[in-house]
Design brief:
Chain lengths: 67, 495
């Protein structure tokens, strides 16, 4: 990851998360063509990985957080 | 047979997975056991190839790097994820055991499980909704966490989810890796010392540095063993403040040991004192007694020490705990004595915790055992509970009436809408009578497990879960003994 202060990092991750969510919507409505790597479930996988890095999106830590 | 175990949580959870890895080999002789952790916590994974055939790591940083830009390159990140997923999928695992319980891990399992793979732990249905295929994971989903009343240790739950039973042999200590262990730190600490882990993954899981200072001072003046501070590099400042505030000699190894060295230190020490953290889980494997200080944000029942001779002290508020009392408890442990401070004692890894005094929320725990383990239902704790049960009976009856309407006309919007509101009413009942939590959370989880299916079957399956709820609460609604009703005990629900 590029060297970046924590605040900037959070900004970029939130930006990326919004873009991934937009792509999920597009894939689900057919506005974006599915490819082998760009499917709804792969995008959700990426979305969840990003969310784990954003404190407000993923309150708590470790195993017992996420349902 | 090829098995993949996912453990994408932190160091402590990885150490708590070791017994399950061992037991899988015992239960499936000749099986290839693969292990997946995050790169950041990879050092906590077993290095013995006889225990882990292949250790996979997920490098979050690498996957997310293309996104850290004003113009995030989502496709690039997807490509990196694709390489990772396809490599795992190509292994053709016969069984995947997901011990992570996170949304990310559930999607990952969905992506890497091939045709015919048996999945245990969270995954996803075809419509991407959460799928909980096994009862152990359903228990975790419904009941585990600091808000719950569960007293099942996470290590045991991991094993249950993996479909195996633990024996004492599964708690064997990690093999010593001489190449990874420097002699300097171990020499400073010596054998039979008292280790103190001053930090934790969260400040709410440990004492303030000033409290630790008082405890260290007390220990130094009360006995002759070396006192050794341990912890990670991030905790070094904290430890320096403690060491500087204590006039007695203290060996400060915080930030100076790798995990293998830490394991050796714990193995050769007489006692470890600390909050809920990885060293406590390492001590469970090395058999080192632990004096575990347990704070409200964790449940010692679920993640406390397992090594024989360990004890737990509950600290609701550190200012209310007299430092010398904790020191006395530690010294008593070393001498085989006792003080009134500890609330549970641990006979050994395969034995249940022994309470030294009745612990809170015992009724809810008894209720959990009745619902999940077919034990006897406990007597209602008070009249309000029975009143709430009556309301639950009414709500359940209302739900079943709507299901009957939907059987006749699956497009009946009114019935569907009333059914949707049933959850809200149950939540209100729980606010009034939290002791009903185990039953309501069990019911909601079982209904969630139904998953997507053809409408007629969905209606039938939903009715089955409501019928099962009715059977459980009928036990209380039909028995009014054991609690006195009073005029002010009615549960009144808001609109």
């Amino acid at each position: 990851m590029k060297h970046s202060p924590e605040k900037d990092l959070q900004h970029f991750l939130k930006l990326a998360c919004a873009q991934v969510r937009h792509q999920i919507k597009e894939v689900n409505t057919g506005a974006r063509k599915k490819t082998k790597i760009c499917t709804s479930s792969r995008l959700r996988l990426l979305e969840e990985l990003i969310k784990e890095q954003i404190p407000n999106e993923n309150p708590g830590t470790a195993a017992r957080t996420a349902r | 047979m090829k098995i993949l175990v996912l453990q994408l949580a932190r160091l402590g959870d990885i150490y708590q997975t070791w017994p399950t890895l061992r037991a899988l080999h015992r239960s499936f002789p000749g099986a290839e056991v693969h292990f997946l952790t995050r790169t950041k916590f990879a050092a906590a994974a077993p290095r013995d190839p006889g225990l882990v055939h292949r250790h996979w790591t997920l490098d979050t940083r690498e996957v997310l790097t293309p996104l850290v830009d004003e113009k995030p390159d989502v496709d690039k990140s997807l490509e990196k994820l694709d390489v990772f997923c396809e490599q795992l999928k190509a292994e053709g695992f016969d069984r995947i055991v997901n011990l992570s319980f996170s949304p990310f891990s559930s999607y990952l399992v969905q992506e890497i499980a091939g045709e015919g793979c048996e999945i245990r732990g969270y995954t996803r249905f075809k419509d991407d909704t959460l799928c909980i295929p096994d009862d152990g994971s359903a228990y975790f989903y419904a009941q585990v966490g600091t808000g719950g009343a569960s007293r099942i240790h996470v290590t045991d739950l991991f094993a249950h989810i993996a479909g195996i039973e633990l024996t004492l042999a599964d708690w064997a200590p990690p093999a010593t890796d001489a190449a990874a262990v420097g002699a300097a730190a171990l020499g400073e600490a010596g054998n039979g010392s008292i280790l103190i882990h001053v930090g934790a993954s969260d400040p709410g899981k440990t004492f303030s540095w000033s409290k630790w200072s008082q405890i260290v001072k007390g220990l130094a003046s009360g006995q002759r063993r070396k006192i050794v501070l341990i912890g990670s590099a991030e905790e070094a400042d904290w430890a320096e403040r403690i060491a500087a505030n204590v006039s007695a000699p203290v060996v400060n190894l915080v930030g100076r040991t790798n995990l293998m060295e830490l394991t050796e230190l714990i193995r050769s020490s007489a006692l470890l004192i600390g909050g809920d953290s990885a060293p406590v889980q390492i001590a469970s494997l090395t058999g080192t007694p632990v004096l575990n200080v347990s704070f409200p944000m964790v449940s010692f029942w679920e993640t406390g020490p397992r090594s024989g001779g360990s004890r737990v002290v509950v600290v609701e508020d550190e200012s209310a705990l007299v430092s010398d009392d904790l020191v006395s408890e530690a010294l008593a442990m070393l001498d085989g004595g006792s003080t009134p401070l500890s609330v549970v004692r641990i006979p050994g890894p395969v034995y249940p915790y022994v309470e030294t005094r009745p612990m809170p929320r015992a009724f809810e725990w008894e209720l959990l055992k009745a619902v999940y383990m077919s034990e006897t239902f406990p007597e209602a704790p008070h009249a309000l509970f029975l009143n709430a049960v009556d309301r639950l009976v009414d709500v359940n009856q209302l739900a079943r009436e709507q299901i009957e309407s939907l059987r006749k006309n699956p497009y009946n919007q009114t019935a569907a809408s009333i059914l949707d509101r049933v959850d809200e009413i149950m939540d209100q009942i729980l606010v009034m009578v939290p002791e009903l939590g185990p039953i309501v959370r069990w019911f909601k989880t079982e209904r969630l497990r139904i998953g997507p299916m053809e409408v007629a079957r969905l209606i039938e399956q939903t009715d089955v879960t409501h019928k099962n709820l009715g059977d459980v609460i009928a036990l209380y609604s039909s028995v009014r003994s054991g609690a006195q009703e009073g005029p002010d005990d009615d549960v009144v629900l808001g609109s």
